[in-house]
Amino acid sequence: MKVLTILGSPRKNAASTAIANHFNEEATANGAEVTTYTLNDMDYKGCQGCNACKTGKESCVLNDDLTPLFESLKEADVVVVATPIYLGDVTAQLKGFFDRFYSTISPEYFETGIPTSRLPQGKKSLIIATQGAEETKHADIANRYDSYFETSGFKDRKIIRDCSRMDFTDKAPAATSITMAKTIAREFATA
Ligand SMILES: Cc1cc2nc3c(=O)[nH]c(=O)nc-3n(C[C@H](O)[C@H](O)[C@H](O)COP(=O)(O)O)c2cc1C
In the Cβ-directed half-sphere of 96, how many Cα atoms lie within 13 Å? Predict the structure, then answer.
């Protein structure tokens, strides 16, 4: 099983990263090969809206630090994205990735209205979202990004939300989040 983990927090001791690390460790213990990208350490542009990926090119024409990440994305069996919620959305770092994810959508989608992805079908995904606010707030955000994975043919999709973190310290993730990460890693590795 090949795992691609994309870290969206700029913080060194991020809870979202800690949860992703627990997933990665358990996945590795179950035979997975993990590749991790820390977006905040990378140099890349947001989508330029050039639509080259819809008018002749099969992939994004930008050549930067996201280019090898998108190569890994094609091969990955499991994609993990981890992010804090910033101003009611994923971090700018992760939004930059998701805007470029547009390049994986085939132009047929715009003719037929039927979502068609260039990615191999049947991948698995895990979205990890941490937030200061309580659980009832921002429930839509992870679901919204999960829907992009769904329309791209991801079949087994999970979400972990670690909430009520408004204390400005490096508080560890909730024990339930860690347990969920490890359980999902084992499920993905054995399914
Ligand atoms: C710029 C900024 C914006 C934030 N906006 C929100 C927000 O809209 N809603 C919320 O619940 N928490 C918000 N937070 C709190 C973070 O989501 C929270 O501290 C999170 O646990 C940090 O995750 P990390 O440890 O994975 O980096 C914000 C924090 C920062 C620094």
Answer: 21
- The radius of gyration of the chain's CA atoms, rounded to the nearest angstrom, is 16
**Tens-digit pLDDT profile for residues 155-191:** 999 999 999 998 788 889 999 999 999 999 999 999 8
Contact between residue 115 and residue 105 where contact means Cβ atoms under 8 Å apart:
yes
CB atoms within 10 A of CB 97: 24
Interval 51-99: pLDDT, tens: 999 999 999 999 999 999 999 999 999 999 999 999 999 999 999 999 9
pTM: 0.97
| Nearest residue by C-alpha to atom 31 in ligand 1 | 86
- The protein residue with its alpha carbon nearest to ligand 1, atom 27, reads 14
CA distance 82 to 165: 15
Distance, in Å, from the CA atom of 9 to the CA atom of 98, rounded to the nearest integer, reads 14
Among protein residues, the one whose CA lies closest to atom 24 of ligand 1: 14
Query: 7 CA distance to ligand 1 centroid (A)?
Result: 14
Superfamily of domain 2-190: Flavodoxin domain (3.40.50.360)
